[in-house]
Amino acid sequence: MYRQSTVAVVIPAYNEEELIQDTLSGIPSYVDRVYVVNDGSKDGTEERVQEFSSRDPRFVYIRHETNKGVGAAIVTGYSRSFADKMDITAVMAGDNQMDPRELPKLLDPIVNGEADYAKGHRLESRTTAKGMSDFRYLGNNILTFLTRFAAGNNKINDPQNGYTAISNHVFKKMSPGSIFTWYGYCNDMLVKLSTYGFKIKDVVIPARYGRERSKIAYPKYIIRISRLLFNELIWRLNYQNMSKSARKANSVMVIGGGMSSMSFTVATLSLITPLSIMGTPKPAESPVGMLIVLSLVGLGMAYLGFVLKRGGKIGMEGKKV
After folding, report:
1. Whole-model pTM?
2. In a shared domain, residues 89 and 173
3. Is residue 233 situated within a structural domain?
4. Which tens digits make up the pLDDT trace of 118-142?
5. Domain count of the chain?
6. CA separation (Å) from 318 to 78, 88, 234?
């Protein structure tokens, strides 16, 4: 437990037999649960993890029979953490690239209520990006610009950084199952979190490179993520337009419902109030007929608002990435 909050760490692993035990041995003692998701590895990753987990009950081993993608492995861990009612879930790669001593920097903004999602930021300067190749540094800056544009959030930095922590209350609104399952999961997360109004905080954490070998072909990766971000942009714009329509529909429903209720109530009172109190109005002067008409108009407005709102929901469901 960290500052009265339970903490889980998700570690996606694909063919990480060389470094997975180094990663696991560095997990801080305050972490309550560690979900190691073996994403269909074909090497000795499973044996290494099971050997380690047999000595520490905090470690939960989960296996995907086939390689589903790093995003899918993280989704599996998120879902398990949410089901186990953890407060915060962090993500660390299985190749020991993320320094566990830096984890409190990601947890503190969430515990303090400053953020719903905190993530590492290596691009603050060339010093914090030490060890990152010039091509990779340029590519990450390009993807930063594209992700900001897709998310409508110009405060996002280093979107490809996978060292993150999230408050599990986020999953009450955003299902883990809606997250993209391959390497663009981090961009997808940032677009969705920004669109849904969650607070995102970048935390400067220097890059740490060692014996790990990247499995990413960067030219193809940048093209693929750019295409994903274009689709995310379309989804965000549609979602926001549908949200505006839903707000208008709510207004129509409230006004119509209020008009109908008031008119119906006054009309009913007019009919049941003793004539000695109300007087005996002439038929042409009686307000009851007009009130009934207003009540029907109000019901019509409420129904119209319901139809508009329902149509908006259907549209939003159909447009999600």
Report:
1. 0.76
2. yes
3. no
4. 999 999 888 888 888 888 888 889 9
5. 2
6. 25, 31, 12
